[in-house]
């Protein structure tokens, strides 16, 4: 899978942009605040209909315009697939093969992307919410059923939390309705946990090989899914058992929205006891493992977006990163300098110079 063509209309600092990409390595070269990250973000948004940088979708729309439009042509093994995303102040509309899709879940997965940015190094040492978001974004691309369960769980969670607050402040008294909401939440939540465990087991297998190579055989990486469920207790049982405490707090205290993933290097929690180098190696191994897992799950390699990440990695980790992607995935890489990039690539990249939202191809 690769993105053959991209067109932007009134997206961030791009008025109008039309560009054809190489199926190999594409380098976005330019100073800071010129639009390099905006271009990578546009590809990410085209794939997932949301950004990794902001929750405010109005930020996508260029100043003093009414909407932003992103269109792309995705080349798959089965043929070319045109995609279109329009973001207005009223919401989003999406098209696949020029046909409007009623649900975003029918659209997501047409273009699979993996983003690796400096902030992704916080995947290991950051808060649990960072890892949950990572799981949901990546697994959602690979599995329509996971995306569906995740969406329905969030809806059910909002309903249950609202009703718990009503019970807390004596605005409602119907405990039977709470049981219905709990059972609904447990159904989707149990499915999510099961799917997460399955995906994480597979991701761990790919990441272990990479981590072993990067650490020159000195380290073994393992994953541990951290849930508040104890023993054989089901989510349904736990939700019913803790109901008085949840009413008192006015919120749902147990479920996959509170779970976490722990990364262990040689049996020790790398988040707590690992060096910065071990944390970075772990993050790199996990992100690169996604490439092979996505190919395994979907039959297509994803598109890789590297946003100024080479500057954050030492020579050894850079070498493993570039070795992992060479001749395998279409890659978009942003940088302020070509120094070291052309030399480390096996084949010369296609280079684009970006200045004030204007893009010019300099090499092929």
From TrEMBL:
State what protein this is by name. DNA replication and repair protein RecF
Q: Which SUPFAM superfamilies does this UniProt record tie to the protein? A: P-loop containing nucleoside triphosphate hydrolases
**Location relative to the cell:** Cytoplasm
- Top-rank lineage group of the source organism: Bacteria
Q: Which residues form the RecF/RecN/SMC N-terminal domain?
A: 2-354
Q: Which family does the UniProt entry place this protein in?
A: Belongs to the RecF family.
Q: Keywords, A to Z?
A: ATP-binding, Cytoplasm, DNA damage, DNA repair, DNA replication, DNA-binding, Nucleotide-binding, SOS response
Q: Where does ATP bind?
A: 30-37
Q: Which CDD domains match?
A: ABC_RecF (cd03242)
Q: Tell me, in a sentence or two, what this protein's role is.
A: The RecF protein is involved in DNA metabolism; it is required for DNA replication and normal SOS inducibility. RecF binds preferentially to single-stranded, linear DNA. It also seems to bind ATP.
InterPro entries listed in its UniProt record: DNA-binding_RecF, DNA-binding_RecF_CS, P-loop_NTPase, RecF/RecN/SMC_N, RecF_2
- Does the keyword section mention Membrane? no
* One Pfam family cited in the UniProt record for this chain: SMC_N
């Amino acid at each position: 899978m690769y993105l053959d063509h991209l067109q932007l209309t009134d997206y961030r600092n791009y008025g109008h942009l039309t560009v054809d990409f190489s199926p190999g390595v594409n380098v976005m070269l330019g100073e800071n605040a010129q639009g390099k990250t905006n271009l990578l973000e546009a590809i990410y948004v085209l794939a997932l209909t949301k950004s990794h940088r902001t929750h405010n979708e109005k930020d996508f729309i260029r100043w003093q315009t009414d909407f932003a439009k992103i269109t792309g042509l995705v080349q798959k093994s089965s043929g070319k697939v045109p995609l279109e995303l329009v973001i207005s102040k009223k919401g989003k509309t999406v098209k696949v093969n020029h046909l409007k899709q009623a649900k975003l879940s029918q659209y997501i997965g047409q273009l699979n992307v993996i983003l690796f940015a400096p902030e992704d190094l916080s995947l290991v040492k950051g808060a649990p919410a960072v890892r949950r978001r990572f799981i949901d974004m990546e697994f959602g691309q690979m599995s329509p059923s996971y995306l569906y369960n995740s969406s329905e769980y969030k809806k059910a969670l909002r309903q249950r939390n609202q009703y718990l607050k009503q019970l807390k402040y004596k605005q409602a008294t119907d405990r039977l309705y709470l049981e219905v909401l709990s059972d609904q939440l447990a159904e989707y939540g149990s499915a999510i946990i099961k799917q997460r465990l399955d995906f994480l087991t597979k991701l761990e297998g790919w990441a272990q090989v990479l981590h072993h190579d990067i650490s020159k055989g000195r380290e073994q990486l393992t994953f541990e899914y951290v849930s508040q469920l104890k023993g054989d207790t089901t989510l349904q049982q736990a939700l019913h058992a803790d109901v008085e405490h949840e009413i008192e707090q006015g919120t749902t205290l147990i479920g996959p929205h509170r779970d976490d993933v722990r990364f262990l290097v040689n049996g020790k929690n790398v988040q707590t006891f690992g060096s910065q180098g071990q944390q970075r190696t772990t993050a790199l191994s996990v992100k690169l493992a996604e490439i092979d897992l996505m190919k395994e799950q979907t039959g297509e390699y994803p598109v890789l977006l590297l946003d100024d990440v080479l500057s954050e990695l030492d020579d050894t980790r850079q070498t493993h990163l570039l070795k992992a992607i060479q001749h395998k995935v279409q890659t978009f890489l942003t940088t302020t300098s070509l120094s070291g990039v052309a030399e480390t690539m096996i084949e010369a990249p296609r280079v684009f110079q970006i200045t004030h939202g204007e893009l010019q191809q300099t090499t092929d």
